[in-house]
Amino acid sequence: MPxxxxxxxxxxxxxxxxxxxxxxxxxxxxxxxEQNLYLVGGVVRDLLLExxxxxxxxxxxxxxxxxxxxxxxxxxxxxxxxxxxGTAKLRWNKWSVDLATARSETYTKSGALPTVxxxxxxxxxxxxxxTINTMAINLNPGHYGELIDPCxxxxxxxxKLIRVLHEKSFTDDxxxxxxxxxxxxxxxxxxxxxxxxxxxRDIPMLETISGDRIRHELKLVLKEKKPExxxxxxxxxNILQKLHPSLKGDGWLAEKFEQARxxxxxxxxxxxxxxxxxxxxxxxxDNEHLILRCxxxxxxxQILRDTNSIKGKLQSLSQPKLTxxxxxxxxxxxxxxxxxxSLLASDSAVTSxxxxxxxxxxxxxxxxxxxxxxxxxxxxxxxHIREILHQLHIARLNGEINTxxxxxxxxxxxxPHRRR
Length: 420
Ligand code: ATP
Ligand code: MG
What we know:
This protein is of the alpha+beta class.
């Protein structure tokens, strides 16, 4: 008889009490419906590693939606269901929990999404990516807390190994290549020898993955605490080059990512700055290929295009005697993420200072008089109204005026000429 490992104490120790309570309630409801309930995947792995993870994934034998609907009645909370996949997302106070019907998968075509059908917990675990993700914890009364480990995930966890379950794993779904690198780098593990060979063999299979799925993987990489480590490893294994041959996961990138984290700018998402820095060495044409390959949405594509366009202005931005309004008009209209990435990428102190002044100050400068105000003050209607407003803005940017009164005074000084 194999030894029974019980993780009930670890659950109590490492998960918030509200979630522990939720699992007890869910387990009681499951019993009343004659269903079985298990905690699976990442959270089990992280409980054993004593790492914080509050993304609960539950597997139900045999109808997750039925269980979720009953739980919603108890807590009067929100639920989203996907009947086609037999999954439900549930809100439990401030927490979000995923419930899935145990299922098996068959891959009819490499890289495409699999055909799924309801099945047992064991089949559900054996469709997963790596052994360390195939463990479950029994939540059924009488067995609460017991570890279920059919693929020897715990042993691999102890040996710090990332191991696929079968020889065709990466062929079936090459996104697992990126997933493997993420776990390896995040946890400081190693790809087990055969897994590494299979991974290298199947790198060409990345071409079978759709743009949407590749973009999703890239996004997950950029959400890691240290994405540069994953990108470096991806370069070493010639995986990054599959995304685009000119991409680099080198020391420069690592240094810039570190600086991006320190910049910690509230109005620019860090992952957008990372992406712009990653794409920094690309030419216009390269950029368009990357945008197409990852089917980047308009906003992200714009960040990459803007970053490229700002590159062409760095020479002008490095002039020490630039007026604030010139700095403003060199950078105005570009996305803030692209500007922030350019700040980090530039190695001229003067340029950095200028971009900083744009981000910290100039970007917020506005003049207050409107076209209507101007008309009330006697300016005749016409295109020169725009020009006057523009000049007022320039005067504001250059610190010549700082108040509405200042604007009015300046306008009066100009008016005799403009009225004619
Ligand atoms: P993370 O901490 O990165 O969220 P996780 O293990 O929770 O890690 P998820 O992406 O949330 O990973 O997926 C949940 C579980 O689903 C995984 O643990 C894994 O077992 C399984 N899984 C996810 N993607 C795949 C895939 N492409 N192939 C096989 N199994 C997968
Ligand atoms: Mg997860």
